[in-house]
From TrEMBL:
Gene3D superfamilies: NAD(P)-binding Rossmann-like Domain
CDD domains (UniProt xref): SDR_c (cd05233)
EC number: 1.1.1.-
Enzyme class name: oxidoreductase
Domain of life of the native organism: Bacteria
Name of the protein in its database record: SDR family NAD(P)-dependent oxidoreductase
Keyword field: Oxidoreductase
PANTHER family: SHORT-CHAIN DEHYDROGENASES/REDUCTASES FAMILY MEMBER
GO molecular function: oxidoreductase activity
Xref: InterPro entries: NAD(P)-bd_dom_sf, Sc_DH/Rdtase_CS, SDR_fam
Length: 245
C-alpha cells in the first residue's frame, strides 16, 4: 500500500482492549493504514506484542497499560496519547467482557457489576477523558456494541444491559459532539472467534446461520467508520450480522 492509499495518515487512534481479539485486529489495520496507534488493555505483554507487530510492519504504535474501569488510569491514557502523538483523532471503545451467563435470579452479582463496569462505565470513562483532546480537531468515536444490546437475550442480562447503555451513550455523545465535528457510531461485529466466549456454554457461535468471523473480518467496517468525511454518518449503528437476532 503506498502512502496515498492509506486513509488514516496523520491520525492518532486510541484503541481499548487492543491486546487481543477484535481490538488487536483493528489496531493492526489502522496502523497499516497510516494511523499512529495507542494500544490499551490491562495485560502489558499483550499490548507490547501488538505494538511490536505494528513496528515490525513499519507502523507507529505505543502500548499504555490501562484498566478502563479506573478513571485516573484512563485520564492518564489520553494525556499520554495526546502528548506522544500530538492529538487524539480516533477512539475505539472496544474493551469488553461477558461474565454474566445466567438468568437474573441465578446470576452472580459480582459478575453482573463487573460486566457493566467494564462495558459501560469503562466506555464513559474513555469518552469523558478523550473529549477534551478530540474537540481540538474533531474526530471519530467508534463503540463496539452488540446485537444483544438492541434485542436483549435471556441469560445475558448484564451484557445486554451494558451494551444497550453503550448504544445510548453512542447516540447521546453523537448529539453532544457534532458541533465539534466528532462523529460517534456503533459497530456491531456479530459473532467473532475470540477469547471472550471461550468459557461459555451459551456461545454466540450458536446463532443459527450467522456468519462467524475472525477478528480481521471486522476491520473493513472499522476502517470505513474511521475514514468517513467530517459530515459523514453519526449516531448510527452499523452491523456485520446477516440476521435480525
Ligand atoms: P477479547 O476477550 O478477545 O478481548 C478483549 C480485550 O479487552 C482484551 O484485550 C482485554 O485485555 C481487554 N479488556 C478487558 N477488560 C478490560 C479492562 N477492564 N480494561 C482494559 N481492557 C480490558 O474480546 P473480543 O475481541 O471478542 O471483544 C471485543 C469487543 O467486541 C467487546 O466489547 C465485545 O463485547 C465486543 N463483541 C464481541 C463479539 C464476539 O463474538 N467476540 C460479538 C459482539 C461484540 P485485558 O484482559 O488484558 O485487559
Amino acid at each position: 500500500m503506498n502512502a496515498k492509499e492509506k486513509s488514516l495518515v496523520g491520525k492518532a487512534a486510541v484503541i481499548t482492549g487492543a491486546g487481543r481479539g477484535i481490538g488487536r485486529a483493528i489496531a493492526l489495520a489502522y496502523a497499516q493504514n497510516g494511523a499512529s496507534v495507542v494500544c490499551a488493555a490491562r495485560t502489558q505483554k499483550d499490548i507490547d506484542e501488538v505494538v511490536r507487530e505494528i513496528q515490525t510492519d513499519g507502523g507507529t504504535a505505543l502500548a499504555i497499560q490501562t484498566d478502563v474501569t479506573d478513571l485516573n488510569a484512563v485520564t492518564q491514557l489520553f494525556r499520554k496519547a495526546a502528548e506522544h502523538f500530538g492529538s487524539v483523532d480516533i477512539l475505539v471503545i472496544n474493551a469488553g467482557i461477558n461474565k454474566d451467563r445466567n438468568l437474573v435470579e441465578e446470576s452472580e452479582p459480582q459478575n453482573w457489576f463487573e460486566t457493566v463496569n467494564v462495558n459501560l462505565i469503562g466506555a464513559y470513562n474513555c469518552a469523558y477523558s478523550a473529549i477534551p483532546y478530540m474537540k481540538q480537531r474533531g474526530g471519530k468515536i467508534i463503540t463496539i456494541g452488540s446485537g444483544v444490546g438492541h434485542k436483549g437475550r435471556q441469560g445475558s442480562s448484564a451484557y445486554a444491559c451494558s451494551k444497550a447503555g453503550l448504544w445510548m451513550l453512542t447516540r447521546v455523545l453523537a448529539q453532544e459532539l457534532s458541533k465539534f465535528k466528532i462523529s460517534v457510531n456503533e459497530l456491531i461485529p456479530g459473532p467473532v472467534n475470540t477469547t471472550m466466549d471461550n468459557d461459555s456454554k451459551d456461545s454466540v457461535f450458536k446463532i443459527d446461520g450467522e456468519w462467524v468471523k475472525e477478528p480481521e473480518d471486522v476491520t473493513p467496517l472499522a476502517l470505513f467508520l474511521a475514514s468517513q468525511p467530517e459530515i459523514g454518518p453519526t449516531a448510527q449503528s452499523f452491523s456485520l450480522m446477516r440476521r435480525d437476532n
